[in-house]
Amino acid sequence: MKLHEYQSKELLGKNGMPIMPGRVAASAAEVPEIVEEIGLPVVLKAQVHVGGRGKAGGVRVVGSMEDVVPTAEKILGLTIKGLPVKKLLVTRACDIAKEFYFGVIFDREKRACTMILSGEGGVDIEETAKENPEAILKITSDTRGKIYDFQVRRAAAAMGVPRELHNQFIKLALALYDMFVDMDLTLLEINPLVVTDEGNLVLVDAKIITDDNAMYRRKEIKEFERADPENPDEVKAKEYGLSYVKLDGNVGCIVNGAGLAMATMDMVKHFGGEPANFLDIGGSSNTEKMKQAMKLILSDKNVKSILINIFGGITRCDDVAAGFIGALRSENIDRPVFIRLSGTNEEIAREMLEKENISADTRMEDAVKKAVAVK
Amino acid sequence: MKLHEYQSKELLGKNGMPIMPGRVAASAAEVPEIVEEIGLPVVLKAQVHVGGRGKAGGVRVVGSMEDVVPTAEKILGLTIKGLPVKKLLVTRACDIAKEFYFGVIFDREKRACTMILSGEGGVDIEETAKENPEAILKITSDTRGKIYDFQVRRAAAAMGVPRELHNQFIKLALALYDMFVDMDLTLLEINPLVVTDEGNLVLVDAKIITDDNAMYRRKEIKEFERADPENPDEVKAKEYGLSYVKLDGNVGCIVNGAGLAMATMDMVKHFGGEPANFLDIGGSSNTEKMKQAMKLILSDKNVKSILINIFGGITRCDDVAAGFIGALRSENIDRPVFIRLSGTNEEIAREMLEKENISADTRMEDAVKKAVAVK
Amino acid sequence: MGILIDENTKVLIQGITGRDGSFHLARMIEYGTNVVGGVTPGKGGQAIDGVPVFDTVEDCVKETGANTSIIFVAAPFAPGAIRESLFNDVPLVICITEGIPVKDMIEINQRLREGGSRLVGPNCPGLVTVGKSKVGIMPGHIFEPGPVGIISRSGTLTYEVASELSHAGAGQTTVIGIGGDPIIGTTFIDVLEMFENDPDTKVVVMVGEIGGTDEERAAEYIKTMSKPVVAFISGRTAPKGKRMGHAGAIISGGVGTAESKIEALEAAGAPVAGLVSELVDKVKERID
Amino acid sequence: MGILIDENTKVLIQGITGRDGSFHLARMIEYGTNVVGGVTPGKGGQAIDGVPVFDTVEDCVKETGANTSIIFVAAPFAPGAIRESLFNDVPLVICITEGIPVKDMIEINQRLREGGSRLVGPNCPGLVTVGKSKVGIMPGHIFEPGPVGIISRSGTLTYEVASELSHAGAGQTTVIGIGGDPIIGTTFIDVLEMFENDPDTKVVVMVGEIGGTDEERAAEYIKTMSKPVVAFISGRTAPKGKRMGHAGAIISGGVGTAESKIEALEAAGAPVAGLVSELVDKVKERID
Questions:
Q1: What does DSSP assign to residue D243?
Q2: By CA distance, what is B155's nearest residue in C?
Q3: Would you kindly state where each structural domain of chain C is located, as residue ranges?
Q4: Do domains C10-120 and C138-287 have the same CATH topology?
Q5: What is the pLDDT of residue D255?
């Protein structure tokens, strides 16, 4: 799960990291009070999950009180890369003597955590990585999952952290690394991490992605998602154990297993259709999951036909059938549904469906072709 | 450092471990108020650092209010194995359905931590270890310093913990183990750990020894020592970086290094003397240490002669000489002192001493013989 | 033959008394798997479908001689269950559980490097050596004996592939789902090597998907193999995944897409099918 | 010859700018030790007695080719200093610092088992290969070249023994103090084996003390040695140490006393002296 900048900073602040004071606002009217509290100059930053906010006019420095509300209104009126700006982070501006890039990421290839540091902080870090790779320093955690002060000390010298700030920088980098590990993050990115004119280190922008699988033990982070979800439908789906991504097509897909779900979408495309979504009901199904999946697909007005493709393993076909029959009773299913069932408890499921006069295909291709044919 | 039972229990209680309510008292007059607070019946336990308190009458259960003060007075009047009882732990009595032995110790041979468990709890555990060793279960921490729930689960079954208490027992054992590690202990012994009639686990007696070397990061434990030292002289010595153990002889010894200190004592004995103490001034001496060492030895009225045996390595002979000369000025040195100096900065030291008309031997045997000769 | 499991495999089920554990216990017995015991802490002493339940893996292994463990324990407790099997040197551990946090798997991966056990999964369907032993959640009736070895990162897509191959008369030696999580105990290369050395396997099917670079690495190994490999990659038409900040781009540098996988595999001589039916045709060609 | 260090040893000093580090830097240079660099975090770029100071061990090793590290860092930071040298694969690490908590040493001991470096100490005086290199805090003038190898758990008692042997004309190959802490990197047996294989060492002196069972274990090894070993055990008359509860008795079962050590060593053919003068006599007998 991706946190908003303001949520990331709240988390960083709670963990004692150096951030400028600030608060989030949902309307321009709330902003002056916040500015009174933290003092001018301030930065107003659009809270949307896309890059390039600055270039789109979503980040502005305001130096006088009279400009606060008009600027806030301007930003809240923006739509950046298709996303309307609904919230604004108001934060005290800080002067910047030098900018660094700091990140920690779960490194899939190394099966470890990698800290990434660069003296060339700012928006063009990916460019730097390509064109000047030696300006990017990487420290990968060892067999004990640790990164050591002496490793960061070398990096600090190499990336040009002023010598008198080395100890402060090492302490901060290791504290951020510990937070990454302790909070089950998969990405923690500070860009830029700045040195102010007074010689303090401040985290100016922050991006956090969490490990969804660990949220059962990270209630404090889960709260962020509830409070301000990136995509409400996807979050709701997740609560029921469904993995859902909305797309632009018109064939609604309900599949068990991510691989089969992707193969189903590939096949829908192959036969000329366009999937309306990715939806994996996951393993170990229960009837409620299936009902919620139907509800979710039906709520998408673009959907013209619904394709249910189940190959039971740990998911039992009878659970799926029971869920579908439940949905049949409670929901208004106003679009054609094509079902394919194979695998665990397939026979029981077929019997249940036959009683409702519903037939189900045995082979995936048959059901996909029928669903795609609906125009 | 060895904690008193009442201190051990305070530490256990603070860490959420199940102990009976209670408090320590330094006089019989304080006891009734404590009993009012925690309720009858109570156990009154002498707080002395020796085994066999029970047999000596130092542990008594009191069931009625009128017996409280007389019993407390009786215990406070005891001297157990030479130690006068100065404090009393007043604790609520608990009924005992079953007794277990539980310990964690730093295991020098294995260079690891070992948990020791037995269904045969109580005073005779060492007897059990000898005669019925299979009744003693040992779990040694693995290469990661961990002990696992599944290991304790097997032990719980083997030692006869009632099945319905297995989960509670495992949780408690692992919490005690974590506390042992987190608090830098070298011994944590609960004997007995009891199951009450109501089926609760309670820690009835507790012994804790801490790692002196880790006290710089365990301030909360260091406080215990300050508040109620086992041996005030030894504690004071430790504060100056001296390692001191009082003995019964009359040759006061000041030596650098534990090995040389022991060899010096062996030699004193060999030539017919009796060392008054073990005193290692440690490495990296400073002049203050030497002065404090002199003060400590002089305060022992049994001391007839003082032997200073220094072989400088990291300890520099000139520092020792300066400290001795300082003591000469500030203390009343009323007994003969014999000095042996060799090693680092020996020449400088000799010069310094010569100016004070003090001579020092070069070889250990010479100084030892002189010190022993004083009667 | 086949790989990893056969008629001598003695299976213990961790989480045997749970909904999934007990259900698949019955399915495995039905298939002919030699399930010798189960573990559910606190429930030792019971029996379920005639199989004894123990409190700990150590007890179970000592009593039954189990040499393979399958884990049906809920995600918060699954890392502990894996550790328990590794601690007791169970040679083969199969973890069905999905949803284990990455942090736990980093640590378990380290333990695997230090010890002698093999982990399959987590978040995998397990494996079957056709006609001999099934240690997993795959529906048993879809497999037929034959010369094809299947390795897959997916669960249900594996069933789809196996089922279609069976229908087409292309039976299997061993079918193994290695799991789709970022950190898994057994990778494509490990299994490719086993199939390369298995005399009964004539053709290998490798089912991959977008994400990670395991397929690209497998392609390097395929170049050295004597047996034909046919691949399938799902997610060709999937929308691009969510970006992992700049750090993700710095670390991965653009690999892991369907295109990069297909390119690597075809360059290694392994044709990549886009539909299961196409895969079946390619496999049949190589059997004959 | 001698063991562990010689004229090719390139020494780096961790904590070179501290009181003890800078003092013993000068003493080591005086002895002829090839000190090539030092490390004090935050003080890189300076030079002290002509020796360059670096911020990290990695920098120092890369610049100077140092192959031996000696640590003078205060106890709270000493475990980190050891880790840094181990992390950078410095082959020989000598830790002078005393007072390191047991918990840290348990972890460092584990790292030593995993890696290829050797640690001597902590809480040790270091070592000297007479006339060639001194890496430690021993006073250099007390040693004379000769055929005796000395291993000791003690610091100053080692000087006593070496000094008396030198006076008596029994010079040394290498003198090493392994440290008196409960967990040390290099044990009696490790060093006995090195002396056994060192052609220049004719007689080995082993200085032990009460506590632990390293002397008892060493006795087992001594049985297999071709060279004579003479031992000294201090603490024969020391009062019994503080009891470590019942647990201590259960774990140790009565070994570790002077009596048990003397008995084990004499049974292994190593005479045990009670006074240094007696030790000197026994060594002289075995040289001649």
A1: P
A2: C56
A3: 10-120, 138-287
A4: yes
A5: 64
Nearest to B116 by CA among C58, A273, D248: D248
Residue D4's identity, in one-letter code, is L
Residues of A with catalytic function: 101, 189
For A60, list phi and psi in degrees, rounded to 5.
Answer: -140, 140
Q: How many residues does chain A have?
A: 375
Q: Is there a contact between A314 and C137 if contact means CB atoms under 8 Å apart?
A: yes
* Torsion angle of the four alpha carbons D220, D221, D224, D227, in this order, in degrees rounded to the nearest 10: -120
Chain C interface, best mutation among B144, B146, B150, by max C CB count within 10 A? B150
Instruction: Average the pLDDT over D153-167 and give the result.
Output: 94
Topology of domain B96-223 in CATH is D-amino Acid Aminotransferase; Chain A, domain 1 (3.30.470)
Per CB-CB distance under 8 Å, the chain A contacts of C235 are 259, 262-263, 265-266
Q: Is the peptide bond before C125 cis (omega within 30 degrees of 0)?
A: no
Considering only CA atoms, which of D7, D12, D131 is closest in space to residue D81? D12
Question: Torsions phi, psi of C205, nearest 5?
Answer: -110, 130
**Distance between CA C238 and CA A286 in Å, rounded?**
26
Per-residue pLDDT at C128 exceeds 60: yes
Sketch the domain layout of chain A as residue ranges.
21-93, 96-223, 232-373
Backbone CA torsion sign across C69, C71, C73, C79: positive
Averaged pLDDT, B235-241:
81
Q: Which CATH number fits domain C10-120: 3.40.250.10, 3.30.565.10, 2.30.30.100, 3.40.50.720?
A: 3.40.50.720
Strands D272-273 and D229-234, sheet pairing? parallel
Which has more pLDDT, A122 or C253?
Answer: A122
pLDDT at D242 over 60: no
Q: Of 3.50.50.60, 3.30.1490.20, 3.90.1800.10, 3.30.360.10, which CATH number belongs to A21-93?
A: 3.30.1490.20
D191, D3 Cβ separation under 8 angstroms = yes
> Which run of H or of E encompasses D287?
helix D276-287
The answer to whether C43 faces chain B, any CB pair under 8 Å, is no
Tell me which chain D residues have a C-beta less than 8 angstroms from the C-beta of A163.
Answer: 42
Task: Find the angle CA(B153)-CA(B154)-CA(B159) to the nearest 5 degrees.
Answer: 100
**Is the pLDDT score of D166 beyond 70?**
yes
Question: Would you say the C-alpha torsion D20, D23, D26, D28 has a positive or negative sign?
Answer: negative
Is residue A131 a contact partner of residue A62, using CB atoms and an 8 Å limit? no
The pLDDT of residue B225: 77
Higher pLDDT, A222 or A209: A209
D98 touching B (Cβ < 8 Å): yes
Instruction: Give dist(CA D36, CA D7) in Å, integer.
Output: 13
| pLDDT per residue as tens digits for the range B33-65 | 999 999 999 999 999 887 788 888 899 999 999
- CA-based nearest distance A314→chain C, Å: 5
Summarised one tens digit per residue, pLDDT across range A115-166 is 999 998 776 788 888 888 899 999 999 999 999 999 999 999 999 999 999 9
Residue of D nearest to A150 (CA): D56
* Secondary-structure class of domain B232-373 per CATH: alpha beta
* Burial of D288 (C-beta count, 10 Å sphere; 0-12/13-18/19+): exposed
Strand C51-54 versus strand C92-95 pairing type:
unpaired
pTM for this structure? 0.92
Q: Residue A285 — pLDDT band, cuts 50, 70, 90?
A: low
Contact C235, C286 (CB under 8 A): no
Q: Which residues of B touch C56 (CB under 8 A)?
A: 150, 153-154
Taking the C-alpha atoms of residue B2 and residue B51, their distance in angstroms, rounded to an integer, is 13
Query: What number does CATH give the domain D138-287?
Result: 3.40.50.261
Q: Give ∠ CA A299-A300-A306 in degrees, rounded to 5.
A: 95
